[in-house]
Amino acid sequence: MNRLEGKVALVTGGASGIGRGIVDLFAVEGASIAILDIEPQWTKDTEAELRDKGARAIGIHGDVSKTDDVKRAVRRCVQEWERVDILVNNAAAAMPADKSFFLADLAESDWDWMMAVNVKGPLLCIQAVAPIMRSGGGGSIINISSISARSCYPGRGAYSMSKAALENLTLQAAVELGSWKVRVNSITPGWFRTRRNEATYQRPGELARRNATIPAGRIGAVEDVARLAVFLASEESDYITGESIEIDGGLLAAALKSSADLAKLRPL
């Protein structure tokens, strides 16, 4: 408890899914939290729910791929709390289940959208907060990646490449911002059950099938990622930077790195 007391966190995509799990645990650990999310009602609801529990929180509706929206969110943090200590780049463009992303017929607009949200967005956020972290004595930046960054499977190439680029951004930022005492790491989740993908797990037998492929025996919960995010945001990890930590219950370790195996299991 209170491992993040006195710290200010900006969490993108923090109104649902893994982002919301991180926001909730950050609040329990004492952080002041700004949520930047593209869903206006979810953002408003998240702020209200956190405040009802006594947390210090502000919800900001915006698009991480838009420079003005990112700068506005960071300004709100500084106006409200005079600092930013933690950035979690969680917002992401997900792959619609009913749409193909095969490279041979990938629409330019789909490629641009995926890269704008998953790569450009985190870069814009890093550019906006890093100087503030430097002036405050340092900080922690956490990028939420995916095991898709380390595996390829048919029809999901744009997403996989965007996450691979995000992990390289993590490395580059860690090297360049180290002298500012700003640490940069990635969390690389496997299969997780969230509000956005719940329909998948309602299909008969789907949950049991996926659980059986994971050495840990279960699909991940948002709390699993949230606990790792708290560790990376706190002083407990002050000598860790430039790392990308898989949190997948052993999924990739279980000889599932080939595209053929992953395609058969239709990962999210």
Jot down its keywords.
single chain; 268 residues; alpha/beta; Rossmann fold; seven-stranded parallel sheet; 7 strands; 45% helix; globular
Plain-language structure description:
This protein is of the alpha/beta class. The chain has a single domain, classed as Rossmann fold (3-Layer(aba) Sandwich). It is 45% helix and 14% strand. The protein is built from 9 helices and 7 strands; from the N terminus they run βαβαβαβαβαβαααβα. Strands 3-2-1-4-5-6-7 form a 7-stranded parallel beta sheet, sandwiched between helices. Helix 3 packs parallel to helix 4 and helix 4 packs parallel to helix 5. 46% of the residues are buried. The mean pLDDT is 90.
Give the secondary structure arrangement, pairings included.
Layout: E1 8-12, H1 17-28, E2 32-37, H2 40-52, E3 57-61, H3 67-81, E4 86-89, H4 108-135, E5 139-144, H5 157-177, E6 182-189, H6 198-201, H7 206-213, H8 222-233, E7 244-247, H9 259-265
Parallel strand pairs: 1-2, 1-4, 2-3, 4-5, 5-6, 6-7
